[in-house]
Design brief:
Layout (H helix, E strand, L loop, with lengths): L1 H24 L11 H17 L6 E9 L11 E9 L6 E2 L5 E5 L3 E11 L1 H20 L13 E2 L5 E2 L4 E9 L6 H14 L3 E4 L4 E8 L5 E2 L12 E7 L6 H17 L8 H7 L4
Helix pairs in contact: 1-2, 1-5
């Protein structure tokens, strides 16, 4: 654990730097800056992307941007937008904006969807979960629910492990309001979302981690190998960790282990000639 604690101290230093840079951009004009909220958010988002990228196999890629379906490409409605999208690297984007990592990706390729917040509060967390739920609603009905959390499909993931087409959903924040983010609030307002589709809510600068788990008939919880909610006879359980600061390295390790395992065990769905043709406007 000493080595893990040393790694955690390095991560803490990186997070403090990002917090200071972000806070500096949020200062009022009287202090020399002009409320650069968008730039502040970009700094936080890029840090989270970098953190996740360190633990992402080469068979996946990470981007920001838009999720499209064959139907939405033909309509005039806005495409689904998210801070971070993790996709199966074997499947190219529909369009890539060359000046950034912003992409339009097909729904079949989506393996993970993460909403990023600078500071987690009751309002910002509800907003993030609501935005993710809107996407889940679309994916639940797409192609008969192939991207649904309750889909029975079990396939081989890009990492050659048993995988699922269901995407990983998470909310990650740089910091949180510790008075608002307490066990009672999560139990009354958030746990239902964890049971339904949110895989975890994590604040790496603190000991806050709320994650989905299974529950045996004997009352013991376990972390499933995939993000699917198809647990057979097992029940779902919400695992909440918010101990004292000296446990921070352990909680960090759990979060990274869950992310590495769950994202490795997701996969893009089949995208053949007929499916590709539908995205590019011909049958």
């Amino acid at each position: 654990m000493d080595r893990l604690t040393s790694i955690q101290k390095v991560n803490d230093a990186e997070i403090r730097l990002i917090q200071q840079q972000s806070a500096l951009l949020l200062q009022k004009p009287a202090n020399g800056f002009n409320g650069e909220l968008k730039s502040s958010g970009t700094i936080v988002e890029n840090y989270i992307k970098g953190l996740l990228s360190k633990h992402l196999p080469e068979s996946y890629r990470i981007c920001s941007g838009y999720i499209a379906t064959a139907d939405s490409m033909r309509s005039d409605t806005n495409l689904i937008q998210h801070d971070i999208i993790i996709v199966d690297g074997r499947m190219p984007p529909i369009h890539s904006f060359g000046i950034s990592d912003i992409e339009v990706v097909c729904a079949e390729s989506v393996c993970g969807i993460i909403e990023v917040k600078r500071t987690l509060t009751k309002d910002s967390l509800k907003s993030a979960i609501g935005h993710l739920h809107a996407t889940k609603t679309v994916l639940d009905t797409y192609k008969g629910g192939i991207k649904s959390k309750n889909s029975p499909h079990k396939i081989v993931a890009p990492t050659l492990s048993i995988g699922t087409y269901a995407p990983f959903y998470a909310v990650i924040a740089l910091d949180c309001d510790k008075n608002e983010m307490n066990r009672e609030y999560f139990a009354s307002e958030i746990v239902a979302s964890i049971h339904e589709f949110i895989d975890f809510i994590w604040v790496p600068s603190t000991c806050l981690l709320v994650a989905f788990a299974g529950l045996t008939d004997e009352g013991k919880f376990f972390y499933p190998s995939t993000v699917s909610r198809d647990l057979g006879k097992s029940k779902s359980h919400c695992c909440y960790n918010s101990p004292e600061a000296d446990e921070q390295a352990r909680i960090y390790g759990i979060a990274i282990a869950l992310y590495r395992t769950w994202i490795n065990n997701t996969s893009g769905a089949y995208l053949g000639l007929e499916e590709n043709a539908a995205y590019f406007g011909f049958d």
